[in-house]
Amino acid sequence: MTLRGWALAAALVLSGPAIAAPSDAPGDTARAKAVITRTKTTGTTYAVYTWTVIRLKGAEPVEEWSAEFNSGKLHRVETPRDRVVANCQRKTAAHYSLTDGTTKSGAAIANTACGIAYDDAIRQIAWLGKHPSPWGEVDRVRLWGAGLIRTYDVTKAGVIVSSTFAPEDNPGKAMLEMRTVALEKRLPKGAIFSRASLARSVVAMKFTLPPRP
């Protein structure tokens, strides 16, 4: 998700020996790459608020909020433990950890924060067609690599509105499920993409509460 809080944690916990992607993996690789690129290069102004459920082996399920904001080439990610600001065009970013109070920067952080994370660990990708969603028609893409199978739904504007992570050795068992609860065209007030803005959250309280059934 991806530096998306638990998404990142899940990627680290679940990563393990590489397992070959199915030889009959469906879809068009070129179209999948185009969708991934769309998430990384979108210039759309949006605020997306999501709710994530994490199910790690030997632990009780964990539920929590996350949010992402975009304006042109500038991007911001928030979770209860992380705040990230990035310039997705320049591939620069800063990550502030609320857990230990440290701030790190670098292109690797930008790659994770800006759209779908894609690097040398990915062995295969697939486009799984167009699907309806509460946020309009989406393209569904799937990536295999680093011990995970990651599936994303992406809008025409390049917004990730849904994601699911599963271990490659047990693809039917979702370990992370993220769903959008609100998608807005307006951003919180202030200079929310500056490094100094990492000192505070810009997420309204209502988006940190469990969504209504």
Helix and strand topology:
Elements: H1 6-14, H2 29-41, E1 46-54, E2 62-71, E3 74-78, E4 82-87, E5 92-97, E6 103-105, H3 107-113, E7 122-131, E8 138-145, E9 148-155, E10 160-167, E11 176-184
Antiparallel strand pairs: 1-2, 1-11, 2-3, 3-4, 4-5, 5-6, 7-8, 8-9, 9-10, 10-11
Describe this structure in words.
This is TonB C-terminal domain-containing protein. This protein has three helices and eleven strands, in the order H-H-E-E-E-E-E-E-H-E-E-E-E-E. Strands 6-5-4-3-2-1-11-10-9-8-7 form an eleven-stranded antiparallel β-sheet, covered by helices on one side. A hairpin with a 2-residue loop joins strand 2 and strand 3. The N terminus is likely disordered.
Quaternary structure: single chain
Name the overall outline: globular
Give the overall average pLDDT.
89
Structural class: mainly beta
CA radius of gyration: 16 Å
Strand order of the largest sheet: 6-5-4-3-2-1-11-10-9-8-7
> DSSP helix count?
3
Q: Let me know the largest β-sheet.
A: 11 strands, antiparallel
Instruction: Please trace the helix and strand order, writing H or E for each element.
Output: HHEEEEEEHEEEEE
- The share of residues in helices is 10-25%
In whole angstroms, the N-to-C terminal distance is 24 Å
The share of residues in extended strands comes to 35-45%
Low-confidence stretches: 1-6, 8-24
Total E-strand runs: 11
